[in-house]
TrEMBL record:
Example GO molecular function: DNA-3-methyladenine glycosylase activity
Record-stated family: Belongs to the alkylbase DNA glycosidase AlkA family.
Record-given protein name: DNA-3-methyladenine glycosylase II
PROSITE patterns for the chain: ALKYLBASE_DNA_GLYCOS
Entries under InterPro entries matching the protein: Alkylbase_DNA_Glycosylase/TA (IPR051912), Alkylbase_DNA_glycsylse_CS (IPR000035), DNA_glycosylase (IPR011257), HhH-GPD_domain (IPR003265)
A GO cellular-component term linked to this record: protein-DNA complex
Keywords assigned: DNA damage, DNA repair
SMART domains: ENDO3c
HhH-GPD domain: residues covered: 50-207
Class of the enzyme per the UniProt entry, highest EC level: hydrolase
Length: 208
């Protein structure tokens, strides 16, 4: 709906909330880009598995080869499950990753999981459900929650980029891993219910 002329633009609620943290406020440069609505969550998990321990550039090449196997259309879990392991290896996937890709497809089929069902679950339920799949860890599901299900209050404590950014911004000593994680939890608790947005600001700042 168009905004009537003369009506002030209201600040995004997450910006005003996160700006209460004076250190975080320094790196907030206006609203974040809106996330596109995406479907086909099994494919997002598969893409995340493919990209593990690879540069973004290499991961993009492998994912493009993967889509090419299906005429550059997003495959269904049934199509992925029916794809011969040798074919998946031929695009540059290791034996372990081939197995994990098939694990995702088979689990989704067996559990009759859909995007709609995931949207109805709370964050922890999604994590518990999907980490049953061998090859899918908590970090992978947190990325799915943030960027596919658009959950606003996810804090990915194990993400290396978040750890590096927080150590730098808050001048935290990360030599004692346990104490460092506790400090991260304490700081991030104040960002709730907008911890996803805080993570995105931290990544953005680190990348710049």
């Amino acid at each position: 709906m168009p905004r009537p002329s003369g009506t002030p633009v209201t600040e995004h609620a997450y910006i005003s909330h996160l700006s209460k943290d004076k250190k975080l406020q320094k790196i907030i440069k206006g609203p974040l880009d809106a996330q596109e609505k995406r479907r086909n969550f099994p494919l997002r998990l598969i893409a995340a598995i493919m990209s593990q321990q690879l540069s973004t550039k290499v991961a993009d090449v492998i994912y493009a080869r993967f889509l090419a196997l299906y005429d550059n259309k997003e495959p269904t879990p049934q199509q992925v499950a029916a794809t011969d392991p040798a074919v998946l290896r031929s695009i540059g996937l290791s034996n372990a990753k081939v197995s994990y890709v098939h694990n995702v497809a088979n689990f989704v089929i067996a559990e009759k999981l859909t995007d709609a069902r995931l949207h109805k679950m709370d964050n922890e339920a999604v994590i518990v459900c999907l980490t049953q799949i061998k090859g899918v860890g908590r970090w992978t599901v947190e990325m799915l929650l943030m960027f596919h299900l658009h959950r606003e209050d996810i804090f990915s404590i194990d993400d290396l980029g978040i750890q590096q950014a927080m150590a730098r911004l808050y001048k935290l000593d990360n030599s004692d891993k346990k104490a460092f994680r506790e400090k991260m939890k304490t700081i991030s608790a104040k960002w709730a219910p907008y911890r996803t947005h805080a993570c995105r600001y931290l990544w953005q700042w680190k990348d710049q």
